[in-house]
Amino acid sequence: MVLLNANYRLTVTLHDIDAAGVMFFAQVFRYAHDVYEQWMTQQGFSLAQIVREQQFALPLVHASADYHAPLRHGDVVDVILSIAELKNSSFTLQYQFVPVAGQSVNSINQVNPPAVTVTTVHVCIHQQSGKKRALPNELVNVFNGGR
Amino acid sequence: MVLLNANYRLTVTLHDIDAAGVMFFAQVFRYAHDVYEQWMTQQGFSLAQIVREQQFALPLVHASADYHAPLRHGDVVDVILSIAELKNSSFTLQYQFVPVAGQSVNSINQVNPPAVTVTTVHVCIHQQSGKKRALPNELVNVFNGGR
Amino acid sequence: MVLLNANYRLTVTLHDIDAAGVMFFAQVFRYAHDVYEQWMTQQGFSLAQIVREQQFALPLVHASADYHAPLRHGDVVDVILSIAELKNSSFTLQYQFVPVAGQSVNSINQVNPPAVTVTTVHVCIHQQSGKKRALPNELVNVFNGGR
Amino acid sequence: MVLLNANYRLTVTLHDIDAAGVMFFAQVFRYAHDVYEQWMTQQGFSLAQIVREQQFALPLVHASADYHAPLRHGDVVDVILSIAELKNSSFTLQYQFVPVAGQSVNSINQVNPPAVTVTTVHVCIHQQSGKKRALPNELVNVFNGGR
């Protein structure tokens, strides 16, 4: 598990909440993907450019979430991104949604346990054929912290 | 204003509701578009096919909603679709979100007033150039009830 | 695995699709929950009523999805609901998203394999205290097909 | 029209895009509300707190958007917030979605015209009765720039 030195802070919005008064479970997947997209862009891998260039695509083959505690309207949450597994043609990302307790939480050593943990598995395919291919070296380097 | 004989029933879901306990205002635009897409498909104008064939596109240039009464979790609502204006290269649709009071509401003569009224204005453009063009005759016929 | 005799048909909408041209992965969780809510209502367990009565709640503690094939704009999909596990205070639902190939698919024996499989685990808690409790007998009966 | 000195930058995400390859029209309403909620919080009016305290609510009675140019995946957009009208018990906000052309756009004098303009009208009501009431003085002061 390599921490990607990526930390994104979000505030639970009015419309994230459902009729039961807590964040609707599916919202964490949208937030996780937004963190993924933002991190990739910061590493030089704009998803918009990847889609446009049509050399490869990184579709999800698996997504899961474990909900440990409810998130409520106005909660401030840090999303801590790490890479859980790196294979020849796929990678697994983990996102910990850690509530911020009154003060800034900028390290993996924060006291708060995550309220939600999300995992996504992406596979690398040729955009046209849809067939599996090896991850581009530049992307492997990024995951290895080689940048 | 021509009633398009289209009536779609929806039930307000758990996740349509926001932290204030009522349907989040932006949800009506998604529902309106789903009704539009379903109606178009039933008339032989699948949006998927239109996008694929790349002859024309029908982007929105305007959308608005007036909220008369809140919608709550579990409310059953009929969406009544009508065409408010038909021009050479654009059309205006109106969607009335009418709560169903204990029984079926299948006509424009229902007792309940709409909780929300949505209006969308679509313009017809060449898919490639983005320039305005006349609406296809077949689509004009559909709006005129000529089918 | 008990098939709940529940079958819901959906059509992939314009806005379900993302910039990569396929259904955004997180949408299946919204659809799964809508199927769950509709099925529960049909069994006499309106989620709106459950929330209002505040006797118990059924929050998710886990959700996952496996993506076997992409879903595209206009695809017609049957969602087949079954109960994978029933415990004293929790239950696990499975949703198979099966593309409909030109004709109706109404049985578990359909030819098409699922494009996506979703799993959700719900735990029963006291609404006020948040503490785990046994599932109501009436709900257990429903899951056992006792209705 | 009073500029509220509020400027929020967003990047159009993969899932904001629809099957037609541009941002789905309804997304701007979600973004507008997120800007509204963030701005209110920064002025000391947390919507979470307002909902919790149940003294007043600020539901929307009208929302509209004019789409001047499509927004595409990866576009960077500044949302410029201003107050268009302030009445005894209601206020009208305007949000200009201005694409950022290669460089920072931090003033109302930017060269780019807005791609989308959104308007929302909020009315102040008693949370319990739902009846119209005057806006709290503190909120009027904020809109008048008195802070």
What descriptive keywords fit this protein?
homotetramer; 147 residues; Thiol Ester Dehydrase, Chain A; five-stranded antiparallel sheet; two-stranded antiparallel ribbon; 3 helices; 7 strands
Please provide a written account of the structure.
4 copies of one chain form a homotetramer. Chain A is of the alpha+beta class and 147 residues long. Chain A is elongated, with a radius of gyration of 16 Å. The first copy, chain A, has a single domain, classed as Hotdog Thioesterase (Thiol Ester Dehydrase, Chain A), CATH 3.10.129.10. The model of chain A is unreliable at 103-108 (pLDDT under 50). In chain A, strand 4 and strand 5 (90-99) form a beta hairpin. Chain A has a 5-stranded antiparallel β-sheet, with helices on one face. In chain A, strands 2-7 form a two-stranded antiparallel ribbon. Chain A has 3 helices and 7 strands; from the N terminus they run E-H-H-E-E-E-E-E-E-H. Chain A has helices at 27-42, 47-53, 137-143; strands at 2-11, 56-57, 60-67, 76-86, 90-99, 116-123, 125-126. Chains in contact: A-B, A-C, A-D, B-C, B-D, C-D. The B-D interface holds B 19-20, 22, 24-26, 29-30, 33, 47-48, 51, 57, 59-67, 70, 120 and D 19-20, 22, 24-26, 29-30, 33, 47-48, 51, 57, 59-67, 70, 120. Chains A, B, C, D: Keywords: Hydrolase.
Q: Layout of SSEs?
A:
4 copies of one chain form a homotetramer.
Chain A: E1 2-11, H1 27-42, H2 47-53, E2 56-57, E3 60-67, E4 76-86, E5 90-99, E6 116-123, E7 125-126, H3 137-143
Antiparallel strand pairs in A: 1-4, 2-7, 3-6, 4-5, 5-6
